[in-house]
Design goal:
Elements lengths: L1 E6 L6 H5 L1 H8 L4 E6 L12 E2 L9 E2 L1 H10 L17 E11 L2 H8 L3 E6 L7 H6 L3 E4 L9 H12 L8 H8 L16 E2 L2 E2 L9 H19 L1 H11 L5 H11 L1
Parallel strand pairs: 1-2, 1-6, 5-6, 5-7
Antiparallel strand pairs: 3-4, 8-9
The structure holds adenine.
Length: 256
């Protein structure tokens, strides 16, 4: 997957794109990133990339001209908006609090694209003509307002890239597919077994894999019931029939 990032703050990205799982996948050629400094494309002699909104309003907007120029430099043309991943046009996303909320379903959809272009907004937004001309879809990472789209773009990159085949190791991706996905994660412990007067639950030290599996299952269910009851309902609706007798009993017990 290739991801282009258009930003006024390119210096924010190198650490995120070269570290950890994402950095290793980029080194292996599974992911390719290119960061464009929007300001490099402004025709303004003071490198200005923002201006006051027509009709008034607080703050400044990012102007259309450097965004048009930066997109053209990437080989994109204003009329050839994204149609489908079957065509070569890149999927264009503008990070914005007014966009579609990013969730695992959208992340999975985006992970199947060959190319994404991410536009990071700043100030009070972007001249609408730049968004319309290139068919940018708006994506939000949560119902809160960040100072700019960069941190949102990093979250999107992280979520989407870990779903690209081969990016995660086989052990990690196995967990992803396990029956637990769709539930909150059960609590886990590592050594030492006793620390500052608190002990790891005894069952985890028992070596009895079936007992441990059932315990983990119950903990995941209880945590999900407490924190995300709507998520638990959806999970039960989708998985209950396929559960073995013991697991069904655990679910029944929690639902009482
Ligand atoms: N830019 C500012 N706030 C944002 C958010 N919540 N999601 C995406 N982009 C943003």
């Amino acid at each position: 997957m290739k991801i282009d990032i258009l930003t006024l703050f390119p210096e924010m990205f190198p650490a995120v794109l070269s570290t950890g799982v994402i950095g290793r996948a980029a080194e292996r050629g599974l992911l390719e990133f290119a960061v464009t400094d929007i300001r490099d494309h402004t025709e303004d002699k003071h490198r200005k990339a923002d201006d006051y909104p027509f009709g008034g309003g607080a703050g400044q907007l990012m102007t259309a001209q450097p965004i048009f120029a930066a997109m053209r430099a990437l080989g994109e043309s204003p009329k050839a908006a994204y149609v489908s991943s079957a065509l070569s046009a890149a999927r264009r996303l503008y990070l914005s609090p007014r966009g579609r909320l990013l969730d695992q379903t959208l992340a999975e959809e985006l992970s199947r694209e060959e190319r994404l272009i991410l536009l990071c907004g700043h100030y009070e937004g972007v001249d609408q003509r730049a968004l319309d001309a290139f068919g940018f879809e708006e994506v939000s990472v949560g119902d809160y307002v960040l100072t700019g789209g960069e941190v949102a773009a990093m979250a999107l990159i992280d979520v989407v890239c870990r779903l690209v085949p081969g990016v995660l190791g086989s052990e990690e991706s196995h967990r992803e597919e396990s029956v637990y996905s769709g539930l909150l994660e059960y609590p886990q412990y590592t050594r030492p077994a006793s620390y500052e007067g608190t002990d790891v639950p005894e069952v985890l030290l028992s070596g009895n894999h079936r007992k441990i599996e059932l315990w983990n299952f119950e903990q995941a269910l209880r945590l999900t019931a407490e924190r995300r009851p709507e998520m638990l309902r959806a999970w039960i609706a989708a998985h209950y029939d396929a559960l073995d007798k013991k697991k069904k009993a655990i679910v029944d017990d929690i639902l009482i």
